[in-house]
Amino acid sequence: IASGQDWFGEPVREPCGVVYIAAEGWQTIGRRIIAAKRARGIPDTVHLPLALPRWSSVCLTMDGRKNIDGFDRVGRGCRAIHEHFMATFGVRLGVGVLDTVSSACPMRDENSNAEVAKVVGVLAELWQALDICLVGVHHFGKNQESGLRGGAAWRANCDHSRIFLTDREAVSDEIRNRRMMLEKNRLGKEGQTYGYELAETIF
Q1: CB 53 within 8 A of CB 93
Q2: Are the CB atoms for 175 and 167 separated by under 8 Å?
């Protein structure tokens, strides 16, 4: 989205800025971004409207309730990033990635649909105020067939769900058939599946 290049064969209709909020594993994301740029033929020295703020211990909710300090801190930061993108690249901040939702929104009971619904409501309030699209990263449980970890409200309360699946060999632990599926689409067709492979990048 930040580069304006196609994604899984789909055109980016509006190139825009992206803020990647790494609530866990912040140290690993920078190299992943470099690897993604190289895979797309973008030199390391070329800057994109992509921000990786070092907001340690981001906390947007506590036990399903809004954490005012964290909420306001992220809001102010995203507005400043938007102004920077407009001045430097001429594009608005359009997408926020929250990785992971459970790290930024600690919960008393992740299996409680009522608590999950409150968390999603707080996130919706923030991103609607910023007028951007939120991409929340959430993991499966131990059993891939059971879907997203925790309450069913994670799926029920989002507009879209893209899931990344693999087939793992039980004995050799070999991973095959990597694919992304549009598992939920509130506005249209569902079930489209896109295969992909991982490319190793040497630093």
Answers
A1: no
A2: yes
- For tokens 């067709």, the residue is 189
Q: Residue 125 burial by CB count (10 A; 0-12/13-18/19+): exposed, middle or buried?
A: middle
Q: Cα separation of 51 and 97, whole Å?
A: 10
165, 144 Cβ separation under 8 angstroms: yes
Q: Which H or E run includes 88? A: helix 68-88
At 120, the amino acid letter reads V
Which pLDDT tens digit goes with each residue over 57-85?
678 888 778 888 888 989 999 999 999 99
Question: Which of 57, 52, 56, 58 shows the shortest CA–CA distance to 71?
Answer: 58
Interatomic CA distance for residues 12 and 34, integer angstroms: 20
| Pairing between β-strand 65-66 and β-strand 17-22 as defined by DSSP bridges | unpaired
Its pTM surpasses 0.70: yes
Please check whether residue 85 is in contact with residue 92, taking contact to mean a CB–CB distance below 8 angstroms: yes
- Judge whether 81 and 75 are in contact, CB under 8 Å: no
What do you get for the CA distance between the two ends of the chain, in Å? 24
Q: Which residues are 168's β-sheet partners?
A: 175
Instruction: Kindly state the tokens that stand for 70.
Output: 């964290």
Is residue 106 within 8 A of residue 59, CB to CB? The reply is yes
* 140 closest CA partner among 153, 149, 131: 149
